[in-house]
Amino acid sequence: MNGFGGAKALRKSRRTIRLTVRDGETVKQRLALVFNWLVVVLGILWFWFWYEPRYAGVVALAIALAVGSIALVIRRER
Fold first, then answer.
1. Interval 25-44: pLDDT, tens
2. pTM of the model
3. What is the spatial distance between Cα 39 and Cα 59, in angstroms, rounded to a whole number?
4. Helix/strand/coil for 10
5. 42 neighbors 66 (Cβ within 8 angstroms)
């Protein structure tokens, strides 16, 4: 039946989410770490942009690289 197949697939997907990345670190912990670093970096870049608007292009490039690296980490975990 379709209902049971869906439940089985959901259990299987939950199991893959709990995969360890390294040294017992879970994907949730890795994503939390990446998010924390992103907040710190974006905060620094925002202050830099606020006081030095001449470097708007550099700040935009750094933000794009940070978001792209986050997307790669998330895609690699799946």
1. 677 777 888 888 888 888 77
2. 0.37
3. 14
4. helix
5. yes
